[in-house]
């Protein structure tokens, strides 16, 4: 039975994006994105123009403004009209590991089509502090469905096995490894989560890249496969901060994919993967689940196992089904374990305005307000035909970037969804309390440098005036309808 088809999100996207669709503007120039803009979305008309300043960055759903700095707002002792969003730094929640994407093999393939100058421009824009400062990446162990072909690191002729992993090799991922090295030159502290879509097919009971389950006799071998992978990446200078045992373990219909029930995953972690990491002195985190918010019972089953629990750092989630509050459900039962949001895709059939609104509200703000340490959109880049992908892989996944040949690229809605957090909220920031109201979704952070960052999504169709209250002072601001703003003070 096909369980929870991951790409059913297109149905949700169509429903959520019932807004007028506008043509995408070509935004490949970093300077045009980050240029100062004279829009008055900062200071609200008659508000104070003295006191502590508030820097304002805005993206409008109608695409007329994209990640542009606005006029400065100021804190004063008086309030303007509209609701009040109160930020309280005395209430501290989780530390933040980062914001980013999955760097798929297909993303690497299309980025490498850019000429050397454009490629470096794009990597700097994505990963440097002068760009949007992405500080967390997810990668696939072997192929994902957004590779041009299916492969593992130990493929064998049909009917043959390799229980000693003598044929293990990262050769087919050399392009990904090289790009990770290039990224590490820009941001040496970026964190990397690695996830398999399928083990080598000879380990599976159906001998196929699609579906099937891990044969019990290969549990120990597969644990060593993870060990060899982490050690081989470390030898290349790439530290794997965390792994999940299986991408979308209840979605065996993708190519590649594998069914891994909560019982299977619990047994694999407690009897094989955890002990193998321990024996090899590997401190890479093991994160359970990595699937939809409609089934918190799965990670809870892993965490409730007293033998598996000590090996598990936390649980990872997607939101193609269920509600983002599932992260809090799991956190509240196991407050000493972390939660992570690791994937959400934007569709080729979606609209900028509706996708910006839903993703910022749910993926960025929603995951953070429900204890997540990360917020990751899906793939970094694709070509104009939404490729490459495997046969049976996602045909409508729109990356943050569309590469148009050797000399150009466009920035899509996922770029701005993540940028409103990644550019301003560095690793080891802490989420702090913020109120919500009047269809304004919010999340706030205190950065290691002592700055306060407030992200606001206005889901109203019209402009809203509101007040930011912090330390008994108030800044009066406005935010356009269906827009995202980041306030730094």
List strands and helices in order, with pairings.
Blueprint: H1 9-16, H2 30-34, E1 53-60, E2 68-69, E3 73-76, E4 83-95, E5 98-102, H3 105-111, H4 116-127, E6 136-141, H5 174-186, E7 191-196, H6 219-235, E8 242-243, H7 262-279, E9 285-293, H8 297-304, E10 312-322, H9 326-333, E11 338-343, E12 346-347, H10 352-369, E13 372-379, E14 381-383, E15 397-398, E16 401-403, E17 409-411, H11 413-422, E18 430-434, E19 440-446, E20 452-458, E21 464-470, E22 473-479, E23 483-488
Parallel strand pairs: 4-21, 5-6, 5-13, 6-7, 7-8, 8-9, 9-10, 10-11, 11-13, 14-16
Antiparallel strand pairs: 1-2, 1-3, 1-23, 3-22, 4-18, 12-15, 16-17, 18-19, 19-20, 20-23, 21-22
Helix pairs in contact: 6-7, 7-8, 10-11
Short description:
It is built from 11 helices and 23 strands.
- Coarse morphology: globular
Output the strand order for the largest sheet: 1-3-22-21-4-18-19-20-23
Give me the secondary-structure category: alpha/beta
- Number of separate strands: 23
Taking pLDDT < 50 over at least 5 consecutive residues as the criterion, the unreliable ranges are 1-40
Helical content class: 25-40%
Mean pLDDT: 92
Largest sheet: 9 strands, mixed, barrel
C-alpha Rg, in Å?
A: 22 Å
DSSP strand content? 25-35%
């Amino acid at each position: 039975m096909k369980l929870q088809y991951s790409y059913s999100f297109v149905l949700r996207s169509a429903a959520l994006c019932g807004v007028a669709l506008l043509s995408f503007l070509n935004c490949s120039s970093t300077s045009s994105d980050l240029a100062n803009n004279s829009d008055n979305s900062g200071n609200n008309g008659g508000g104070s123009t003295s006191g502590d300043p508030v820097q304002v960055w805005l993206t409008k759903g109608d695409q007329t403004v994209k990640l542009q700095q606005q006029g400065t707002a100021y804190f004063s002792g008086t309030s303007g009209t509209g609701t009040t969003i109160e930020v309280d730094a005395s209430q501290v929640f989780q530390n933040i590991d980062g914001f980013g994407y999955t760097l798929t093999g297909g993303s690497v393939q299309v980025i490498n089509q850019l000429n050397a100058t454009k490629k470096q421009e794009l990597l700097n824009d994505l990963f440097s502090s002068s760009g949007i400062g992405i500080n967390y990446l997810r990668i696939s162990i072997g192929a994902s469905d957004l590779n041009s072909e299916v492969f593992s690191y130990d493929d064998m002729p049909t009917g043959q096995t390799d229980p000693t992993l003598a044929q293990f090799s990262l050769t087919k991922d050399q392009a990904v490894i090289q790009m990770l090295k290039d990224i590490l030159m820009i941001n040496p502290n970026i964190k990397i989560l690695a996830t398999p879509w399928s083990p080598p097919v000879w380990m599976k009971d159906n001998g196929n890249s699609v579906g099937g389950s891990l044969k019990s006799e290969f549990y120990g071998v597969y644990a060593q496969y993870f060990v060899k992978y982490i050690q081989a990446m470390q030898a290349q200078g790439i530290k794997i901060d965390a792994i999940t045992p299986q991408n979308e373990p209840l979605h065996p219909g993708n190519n590649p994919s594998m069914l891994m029930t909560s019982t299977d995953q619990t047994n694999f972690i407690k009897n094989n993967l955890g002990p193998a990491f321990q024996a090899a002195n590997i401190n890479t985190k093991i994160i359970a689940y990595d699937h939809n918010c409609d089934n918190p019972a799965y990670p809870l089953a892993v965490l409730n196992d007293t033998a598996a629990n000590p090996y598990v750092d936390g649980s990872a989630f997607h939101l193609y089904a269920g509600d983002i509050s599932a992260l809090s459900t799991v956190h509240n039962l196991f407050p000493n374990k972390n939660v992570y949001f690791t994937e959400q895709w934007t569709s080729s059939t979606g609209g900028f305005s509706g996708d910006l609104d839903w993703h910022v509200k749910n993926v960025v703000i929603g995951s953070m307000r429900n204890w997540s340490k990360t917020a990751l959109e899906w793939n970094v880049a694709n070509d104009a035909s939404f490729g490459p992908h495997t046969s049976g892989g996602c045909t409508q996944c729109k990356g943050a970037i569309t590469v148009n040949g050797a000399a150009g690229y466009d920035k899509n809605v996922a770029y701005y969804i993540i940028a409103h957090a990644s550019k301003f909220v560095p690793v080891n920031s802490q989420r702090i309390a913020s109120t919500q109201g009047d269809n304004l979704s919010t999340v706030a952070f205190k950065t290691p440098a002592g700055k306060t960052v407030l992200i606001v999504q206005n889901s109203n169709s019209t402009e809203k005036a509101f007040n930011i209250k912090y330390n008994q002072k108030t800044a009066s601001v406005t935010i356009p309808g269906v827009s995202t703003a980041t306030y730094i003070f």
